[in-house]
């Protein structure tokens, strides 16, 4: 009788241990199915200009023209409106939700002048006159998106008078309605090699 009782207790103990092990295994599987850290929304969400990263972080210079052909050039000629439109953009990095935001766009002639005076672009570099180009006052990034494109429009007739020169302008972002600016790459120094453009 004692043996039967002992055997019965051992079986109950084994069943309890098996159930405990099964519960632990199930918990491990559930935890393993949760999203890993690279999908967790943490840290700061920064707004920047992707063109400011085109040199891989050595400068914020953005060379125009770039691209292999008319389909991939970073500018478009609008002969009808006498403009050359240089492609620029606003982008939001980070894992937070893609809420809509707006950001102001400003021209920084003082920064362009400093770059020209520094001499790194050679002796053909000159500041693009303020009256020779326009930029939008603001750029909106809609809900659900993380980027948008805008243009710096340069007067085509004025551009042609600078053949043989590199025109330098600085375009910067400011006053975002949401998130914060990445100060290191929230401005872009646009360097237009006029002679290299395919102009009509």
UniProtKB/TrEMBL annotation:
Name the record gives this protein: DUF1735 domain-containing protein
* Species the sequence originates in: Mucilaginibacter jinjuensis
Arranged from A to Z, the UniProt key words for this protein are:
Signal
Q: What's the domain of life for this entry?
A: Bacteria
Give the residue range of the signal peptide: 1-22
């Amino acid at each position: 009788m004692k043996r039967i009782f002992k055997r019965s207790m051992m079986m109950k103990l084994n069943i309890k241990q098996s159930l405990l092990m099964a519960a632990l295994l199930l918990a491990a599987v559930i935890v393993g199915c949760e999203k890993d850290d690279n999908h967790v929304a943490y840290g700061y969400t920064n707004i920047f200009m992707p063109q400011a990263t085109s040199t891989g972080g050595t400068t914020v210079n953005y060379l125009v023209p770039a691209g292999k052909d008319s389909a991939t050039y970073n500018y478009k000629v609008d002969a009808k409106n006498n403009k050359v439109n240089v492609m620029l953009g606003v982008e939001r990095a980070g894992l937070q939700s893609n809420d809509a935001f707006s950001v102001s766009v400003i021209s920084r002639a003082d920064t362009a002048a400093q770059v020209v005076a520094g001499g790194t672009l050679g002796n053909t570099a000159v500041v693009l006159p303020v009256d020779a180009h326009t930029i939008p006052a603001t750029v909106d990034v809609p809900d659900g998106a993380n980027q948008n494109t805008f243009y710096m429009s340069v007067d085509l007739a004025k551009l042609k008078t600078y053949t043989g020169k590199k025109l330098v302008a600085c375009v910067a972002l400011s006053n975002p309605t949401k998130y914060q600016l990445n100060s290191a790459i929230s401005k872009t120094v646009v360097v237009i090699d006029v002679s290299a453009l395919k102009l009509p």
